[in-house]
């Protein structure tokens, strides 16, 4: 969203000062938390107490900043309300059993969800992006979608504020390639497709890509040409456990991982395990030579477009090696397993077969 600015206006000067205070307080908070955690590890009770007191002082600064912002107009007050997170150590007071629950339930405690100002406030997006970004690091499962949706439902249904909040969360989840991203995207489309058709078209285009990070989702299908010119379709491999292996002849880590993958393929291929290698090569000769040199006897396809590969784009692949493991029904079991992690997962799957 574009925001008009009048340089050196009183509002912009006040906003700049407010942002500067947010930055300063966040830096102090991070420094105090690092000191506290270090003191805990060293069992230094004196420093622990000092750091808790330091955090309490920062909490008071944040509360005062919020009160000061209210005297400078509703816009600054609403910005401050989305940036006033107080420390668990001092403010929890036994309400929640752990810091994660405290974070989820208090991050936006000063926000008035019914206030129409949030419909025009860029920080509605920014604040929710920051919130989701923090949670994405702590909760790696689809469960995060349920937590975030509970927050989005506090905004008036169908409001611009709700749209900005969900879009901020989706931005964070998409950047993190989080499995909850597809669920949030689908919820946005369901709620806003009629009201905001143009931006929702873009999100609809992302959904299939986002689903490739959702454990339990059916993997998007594709088909491609083998080195021999045959068409190989992912759908044709239903009934087998399939590892989609994104790699390239020029990728050193890929080539170093190949002996491990060859060993596992030979161990499980007669038990219903298949590999579909998807190369990000541009040159057929190098692709074929690497297959032969590394003795990769499984299925292979490539459109020979390098990083512009439609298969890589479809699966959100931005680095290699990268793998997607599917069950017999074509549902995603795991992403990016390599080495011992892949070995352990295959052993778990085939121990019951």
At the fold tier of CATH, the topology name of the largest domain is Glutaredoxin
Kindly report the name of the CATH homologous superfamily of the largest domain: Glutaredoxin
Q: What CATH architecture of the largest domain do you see?
A: 3-Layer(aba) Sandwich
Instruction: Give me the secondary-structure category.
Output: alpha/beta
Order of helices and strands: HHHHHHHHHHEEEHEHEHEEH
Main-sheet strand order equals 5-4-3-6-7
- The percentage helix is 40-55%
Domain count: the total is 3
Rg over CA atoms: 25 Å
Topology:
Elements lengths: L9 H33 L2 H27 L2 H8 L6 H4 L7 H8 L15 H17 L4 H10 L7 H16 L5 H12 L4 H15 L11 E3 L5 E3 L7 E7 L4 H17 L4 E7 L4 H10 L5 E3 L8 H5 L7 E5 L5 E4 L3 H12 L3
Helix pairs in contact: 1-2, 2-3, 6-8, 8-9, 9-10, 11-14
Give me some keywords for this one.
353 residues, alpha/beta, Glutaredoxin, 3 domains, five-stranded mixed beta sheet, two-stranded antiparallel sheet, 14 helices, 7 strands, 9% strand, elongated
Summed up, what is this model?
This protein has 353 residues and is of the alpha/beta class. It has helices at residues 10-42, 45-71, 74-81, 88-91, 99-106, 122-138, 143-152, 160-175, 181-192, 197-211, 252-268, 284-293, 310-314, 339-350; strands at 223-225, 231-233, 241-247, 273-279, 299-301, 322-326, 332-335.
Task: Write a structural description.
It is a single chain. By secondary structure, the protein is of the alpha/beta class. It has helices spanning 10-42, 45-71, 74-81, 88-91, 99-106, 122-138, 143-152, 160-175, 181-192, 197-211, 252-268, 284-293, 310-314, 339-350, and strands at 223-225, 231-233, 241-247, 273-279, 299-301, 322-326, 332-335. It folds into three domains: 1-81; 100-110 and 119-214, no CATH class; 223-350, Glutaredoxin. The strands form two sheets. A five-stranded mixed beta sheet has the order 5-4-3-6-7, with helices on one face. The chain has a two-stranded antiparallel ribbon with strand order 1-2. α6 packs parallel to α8 and α11 (252-268) packs parallel to α14. The longest helix is centred in the first third of the chain and has 33 residues, at 10-42. The radius of gyration is 25 Å and the shape is elongated.
């Amino acid at each position: 969203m574009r925001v008009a600015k009048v340089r050196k206006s009183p509002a912009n000067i006040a906003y700049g000062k407010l942002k500067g205070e947010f930055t300063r307080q966040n830096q102090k908070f991070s420094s105090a938390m690092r000191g506290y955690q270090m003191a805990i590890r060293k069992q230094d009770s004196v420093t622990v107490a000092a750091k808790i007191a330091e955090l309490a002082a920062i909490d008071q600064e944040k509360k005062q900043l919020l009160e000061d912002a209210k005297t400078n107009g509703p816009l600054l007050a609403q910005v401050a309300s989305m940036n006033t997170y107080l420390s668990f150590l001092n403010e929890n007071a036994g309400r929640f059993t752990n810091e994660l629950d405290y974070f989820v339930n208090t991050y936006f405690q000063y926000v008035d969800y019914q206030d129409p100002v949030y419909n025009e406030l860029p920080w509605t997006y920014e604040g929710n992006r920051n919130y989701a970004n923090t949670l994405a690091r702590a909760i790696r499962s689809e469960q995060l979608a349920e937590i975030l949706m509970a927050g989005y439902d506090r905004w008036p249904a169908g409001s611009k504020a709700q749209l900005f909040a969900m879009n901020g969360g989706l931005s964070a989840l998409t950047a993190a390639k989080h499995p909850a991203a597809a669920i949030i995207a689908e919820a946005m489309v369901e709620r806003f497709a009629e009201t905001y058709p143009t931006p929702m078209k873009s999100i609809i285009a992302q959904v299939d890509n986002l689903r490739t990070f959702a454990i339990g989702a059916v993997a998007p299908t594709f088909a491609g040409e083998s080195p021999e010119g045959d068409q190989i379709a992912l759908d044709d491999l239903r009934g087998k456990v399939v590892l989609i292996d994104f790699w390239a002849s020029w990728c050193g880590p890929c080539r170093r991982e190949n002996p491990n993958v060859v060993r596992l393929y030979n161990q499980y291929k007669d038990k219903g395990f298949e590999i579909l290698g998807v190369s990000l090569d541009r040159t057929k000769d190098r692709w074929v030579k690497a297959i032969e040199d590394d003795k990769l006897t499984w299925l292979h396809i490539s459109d020979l477009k390098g990083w512009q590969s439609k298969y890589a784009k479809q699966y959100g692949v931005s680095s290699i090696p990268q793998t997607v493991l599917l069950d017999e029904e074509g549902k995603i079991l795991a992403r990016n397993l390599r080495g011992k992690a892949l070995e352990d997962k295959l052993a778990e799957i085939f121990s019951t077969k």
